[in-house]
Amino acid sequence: DVAAGGDAQAFWGTSLMNGDRVDASGGRVLTVTGTGDDAPRARAHAYDAVRVIDGKIGTRELSFRTDIGRV
């Protein structure tokens, strides 16, 4: 299980579990959403989850946008 954490949820696509790691062939394979009392907290929870998930991606270094959810 590649968990995003209690304040975030990850939605996976075009990826497979390989033991305890996730292998992806490329493209947009992950969407992470965060929850919080306001937009900045929700955004922080989402990016915290991305950092946790980053260590569990198998085939490539995780690349992601950092401008989403800015208020």
Q: Could you please describe the fold and organization of this structure?
A:
There is one protein chain. The strands form two sheets. The protein has a two-stranded antiparallel sheet. It is an alpha+beta fold. The protein has one helix spanning 39-54, and strands spanning 8-12, 15-18, 21-24, 30-34.
Distance between the termini: 32 Å
Tell me the helix content. 10-25%
The amount of beta strand, in percent, is 25-35%
Query: Which blocks of ≥5 consecutive residues have pLDDT under 50?
Result: none
In terms of quaternary structure, what is this?
Answer: single chain
> What is the helix/strand order?
EEEEH
Shape: elongated
Q: Give the averaged pLDDT, no decimals.
A: 79
| Number of H- or I-type helical stretches | 1
Strand order of the largest sheet: 1-4
**In total, how many beta strands?**
4
User: What is the C-alpha radius of gyration, as a whole number of Å?
Assistant: 12 Å
Write out key terms for the chains shown.
single chain, 71 residues, alpha+beta, two-stranded antiparallel ribbon, 23% helix, elongated
Chain-wise SSE layout:
Layout: E1 8-12, E2 15-18, E3 21-24, E4 30-34, H1 39-54
Antiparallel strand pairs: 1-4, 2-3
